[in-house]
Protein 1
Amino acid sequence: MLWQTFDQTVELGWDFYLPVIIFVSLIALAVPVWAAIGTSAILMLVMSGDLPLSLVGEKLFTGIDAFALTAVPLFILTGDVLVRTGLSRKFLDVAEALTCFTKGGFGSATVLVCGMFAAISGSDAAGAAAVGRMTIARLVESGYPRPYACALVAAGACTGILIPPSIAYIIIGLVLGISASTLFLAALIPGIAILLSILITNLIVNRIYAYEGGGQMTMAEWLGNLGRALKSGWYAFIVPGIIFYGIFSGRLTPTEAGATAVVVTIIMGFILRTLSLADFPAMLVSSAKVNGVILPIIAFSAPLAEALAIMGVPQGFVTSVTGLTDEPWLLILLMIGILIAAGCVMETTPNIVILAPILKPLADNIGMNEIQFCIMMITALGVGFITPPLGLNLFVVSGITGESILKIAARAVPFVLCMFLVVLLIAYMPAISTTFLPEIYK
């Protein structure tokens, strides 16, 4: 019924349906997403005749001609340097010292270090790979089944796009014309809420199955362990400190904060003698490969968004959905369902560039704050990182350990449920994502 209403409202023809069919077919054939988006967008423009094909090249350029996008490669490079300098292991030492007194201490430390890494790199896959290599073997030695250990790392790494600074928030801010710094402020509480929900879920599961025992220690012993860890690795927190203080104080833009973080991390690597000039080619190539996936998608999204807007797809979607029900809580639930389903089959970047312009008018129609909408969207898409069939983090940890993706996904179910609950809280409680915002954004 929804699709029939939508079709009648927009009066779509083969100039819409054929490109959509081709897009789905190319994705199913494992063609790169940017190529699928570009092919569909160009075909849509040619068949509709609404926009001269000569303007496509210009749209490709303007799609990535944004200063804010410079922050993306900088944060990715910071994450690579962080791993190669060994600073990420200092995060793990401090996280382990913080949680060593709890039942399931190293599991909790794994979740915390995922959050720490997320606060620097802004990438979930990078976090899953870096933290997975450091922790999965030790989690298994501590008593965790290997599939569950993999699921724990995969879930914790979801914070890569949820805790600011996040590449996903930079992209959605660019697509919808919202300041990335504002989104970082709004994402602070939701990101921490996701981290705590994963941590608490692990503690509950560990209490039920007794995977890992807790250390019996006095307060003095715990403080002593924590003090030694901080004394040994305090300097690792200079980098996230610069990023957070610079962005949240307004002294640095996200791009400037990313550039500063790269320089400081490199200098620390040279001082510690854990980084050399010979490491630079591999680091730059690794970062370039990640950027080579993200930026073409953003570039080709510009002509696609133009074609969809000319056809009236976003407006038609709003009209058809609100024609079925005008209950805001139902419409919010519908948006969440669409986002989680999309996150299960496609990566975050194409989902943002395709769905954000379509769902944003619906959120506006029910009076949802645009900042709250962005936070809800990214958090809902984050659930898709640990859900089949795509589940990027599942593939990353499976590639590291050789464990079956289906076994990891089965053990990730409790984390999917806890993250879904946080998504609902964000969607129905605006204060969670607007607490730290200036009044003009509330």
Protein 2
Amino acid sequence: MKFNYRHLKTILKSTLLLSALGFAIASCDDDDDFWDAFIPETDKEPTTTQVEGYVFRPALVPADAANVNQLKVASGFKVAKFAEGLGKPRILAVSSTGFVYASDRDAGIVMLLTDTNKDGVADDKKTVANIKQAHGLTIYKNKMYIAAVNEVYVADMNANGTLGMPKLLIDDLPDGGQHPNRTIAFGPDGKMYLTVGSTCNACPEPNGENATILIANEDGSGRKVFAKGLRNTIGFGWHPETGEMWGMDHGIDWLGDDEQKEEVNQLKMGADYGWPYIYGEGKYNPADRPQGDTTYQQYLQKTTLPSLTYQAHSAPMQMAFYNGAMFPAEYKNDAFVAMRGSWNRSNPVGYKIVRMHFENGKPVRFDDFVTGFLVNSNKAHFARLVGVATHTDGSLLFSDDTNGVIYRVSK
């Protein structure tokens, strides 16, 4: 009698699924994955999985005219340099009077850029603050708030766009580790929100403020954890119509080319978004098991899963809801996100600006908005994108911290 291997495999698979072995099987997209990965609920059974990991960093080439001219932008738009020779511009903020600010974490400065003749090109640049590892920027009640690794400062804004002497509000944020880039904003409730990334790729954090978003009063007092289980949420904001808070979280590295996808999360007080144990649409991280007697399934039950996901390793950075008047009406209240680009993937992804469509206040899909920063058959790049902001004239600004350029998209 001949054994039918495929039939036997089916029987065994069904038996395993129906038995009380007490373990879950994660990342099972096809039959082969089923036989390759076993992630039990507890450590009474062995965990086994195999992941292929890659490091590929495209070479850096200049942002010269030839490269910039071949950029692709959505139909009806054009893209050009707003400013260059800026060092390493990161997060952007724009005042109600049209002053453009950019942080440079490595230089420890905040820059002011002005376009005095309104031709879409900055004609003046000056340093307006010197703060070690300055990164996050936001403007609230005509004051500039600046977040560094451990500190938050506030400075008065003068009529000419310069800043007064920064005043220290917070000096004891957790140490940075792998993700030191804090971002900051004020919500519709008048509260200060601060992102604090994880110190590692995936691990239990000894400091409960790491891998979180914090909330505090306007003066920095009363700080507490707003949401946790967030590996590194750089970009976040509030939908202009619903007031709901949304953010994009960075996925875990070293899970393979297509894992962990970047997450779009609706951010709510007290929610746990799963990191480092649960990721994506409820998958188990084989390298990190919930502590104590908690099983993966129990942790999953208290995890808030993403509303939408995006290509793994794209590295979402600053995010801005569009509130300008230059773009067509259908762009209103959608969000733009800077995708910095991959390094932990065999073929590079990201290196672009994307549009996140919202329908009835909820994110539904992504479209490419500006692409072409990968060149030479994807072997090289001339920008890794970080900051995104809407200018008062309705154009979209975004920053690159590799060639020191801020770009402008206009109609």
Protein 3
Amino acid sequence: MDPYAALRYKEFNIFLIVRFAMVFAWSMQFIVIEWQVYSLTKDPLSLGIIGLMEVIPAVSMALFAGHIVDQREKRNLLVTCIVGFSVISLGLFLLSWPGLEDSWESKTILYSIYALVFLGGFVRSFLGPTIFSLIALIVPKKIYPNAATWSSSTWQLASVLGPALAGFSISWIGVHWSMCVIFGFSLFALIFLFQIPKKPILNPKIGEPVFQSLRDGLKFVFGNKAIFGALTLDMIAVLFGGAVALLPIYAQDILHVGSEGFGILRAAPAVGASITMLGSTRFPLHKKAGKKLLWAVFAFGVCIIVFGLSELFWLSVIALFLSGAVDGVSMIIRQTILQLKTPDNMRGRVASVNSMFVGSSNELGAFESGLAAKLLGTVTAVVFGGCMTILTAGTTAIVSPSFRKLDLQKDIDEHEKED
């Protein structure tokens, strides 16, 4: 297959620019918030609460968001999501105003940050399903795997640059003006998005009762072994492998590398994932996908353990880099499974379940890591998470031989015949 097939569609290129800008802004914002909150509290549990504040609304609204996405026009819905994110970024910019700490109590600032993160969870519950659904309306089915790879690669590239710039930006211009940069990127995304025209609504059941719609979506996900297996495996791995939530502690108190080192540590996994994803455009991962996914999750757990035990900055960076590289394999395979095996009229609901399983497990993983660090100590918490990830991969390989034998080549061949 042509490794640049999806890039030959102008609208898809515009979509990638929008996605890059939004992921860059969101990942940079999360890092700046983590740094500010830990600087205010010096409490590892406060980092976990950031994740919890986002995951509560994201999970509670996920299924309803999926229903709404399947019922609405996707371009304008994405516009609404970006506007919502811009408002939240503006609020965080104002909260970080120099001198505010002199007139407001630290707790007031902290709770206000948590409140805006909470609102961001509602925005995120719509953002993921909308983006997932929009891709399928821009490119033909036969190049879904290639489009999914480029989309994921763009996500990872933004995830590299966002955290890296956040670390250096905090050092160079401070938290306040870093928030201003984030707000600017959200406006940039909004401007480019209007170059994509409105898209047709492919759901034949417009006006379907919401609870019937939700039941159909859940029934489809739980009834599809490939989708359910991939989501479950990744959810548990991410839940217990959420070491990145504790990076401010490692940067400030264990490795003693400051905000610049924090930015490098935070970006290392995304650098590894980006290299994997760009490589996968020439060397696809759809053959023997089940085995590759299981090995990737196992290797991810090993990398997390090495990182947790390391007291050397360069070894920590390498471990995080390799964790991102194998996580990139997992992400590509999961996204390819979802794109190939999800019908057009259910993309919003399936993507919402995906966000509940995988996306929200990032925040739950952050809370679990913060709580475990509070109770067990930071290093013990990270090593425990890595061990649980390895156990998850091994258990899945033993109890689910059908998933271990999963191969996506047949699905790709069928879509090529349809087009």
